[in-house]
Amino acid sequence: MGGRLDTGRLYAALDAERESRGLSWRQLAAEAGVSASLVSRMGNGHRPDLDGFIALVQWLGMPAETFMVWPEGRPDGRRRPSLEARLAPLLRAEEELSEADQQHVLDVVGLTMRHIRAKNKELK
């Protein structure tokens, strides 16, 4: 079975970002390049069309997969990507960080996650 969109999660992320920027829903829609009626319908639980979904996740600057759910587990039994893999594109998009800074953050996160994973294995 294919992935499904968690419209509620997308709408909540849009609302949080909208509030943090001090925007109205109409302003958000205009910035994202979608109709105000699209975001209004989403508030009532309706799914956006594909182009609208793409525009909204691009406006958020978040990976589309953030808003997908697999009711029967991930396809092909794949596990969720590591935290490091999910952080890398976010860090690369952060203009304040140099490449060295980005790598440093990834190294610290990687070291921390290896420690946590080893500790969790010991507890099992």
Automatic annotation (TrEMBL):
Residue ranges annotated for the HTH cro/C1-type domain, each copy included: 14-67
UniProt xrefs under PROSITE patterns: HTH_CROC1
Source organism superkingdom: Bacteria
Pfam families, A to Z: HTH_3 (PF01381)
InterPro entries reported for this sequence: Cro/C1-type_HTH (IPR001387), Lambda_DNA-bd_dom_sf (IPR010982)
Protein name: Helix-turn-helix transcriptional regulator
Species assigned in the record: Amycolatopsis thermalba
Classification lineage: Bacteria, Bacillati, Actinomycetota, Actinomycetes, Pseudonocardiales
